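ESCALATION

Customer reports they have been waiting on this structure for their group meeting. Please prioritize. Original submission:
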Amino acid sequence: MEDEVILLDMWASHFGMRVKIALAEKGIKYEHREENLENKSPLLLKMNPIHKKIPVLIHNEKPICESLIIVQYIDEVWRDNSPLLPSDPYQRAQARFWADYIDKKQVYPCMRGIYSGKGEEQEKPKEEYQEVLKVLEGKLGEKPYFGGDSFGSVDLSFVTFYSWFYAMEELGNFSIKAQCPKLVAWAKR
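Update from on-call: job pushed to the front of the queue and completed.
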């Protein structure tokens, strides 16, 4: 019997993109169901009754919620296909730490503060955003990917925000490329 895999998502979700990338990296076929966040489907409300948000991966009728947890689940269930997390326990813990850092430093809320704020309202989120990018560039160092020579879970956790780099630069009047050239080169890779 083949696995039934359904992804509840919305086209513009950075967090849903993480799951799509993980599924693509693993070569997993799935059914995509677009959600309207203004009018949430009964399936979404049933599968994620606590947070009532996307993404939700439904694997053989069992829901998994929260993008980083879903990515780890995908990596564990389909472990024979292109590992996303390192096999070494210490390196795996480090990868989880940095993926968590990306979420807890709230890259998305900083971006939202930049694009929805005006003048002084933009300054604090802009400073926080630039600081997070500098820390991540320091972590990347001279490696082609955060985990070394191959694309992995930390790359997957952050790359979905790259599509907004240009907008953040324009709205915040700063240059990510000038401040973090290695990070921009990584994102293009």
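Sent to customer with the following note: The chain has a mean pLDDT of 93.
Escalation resolved.
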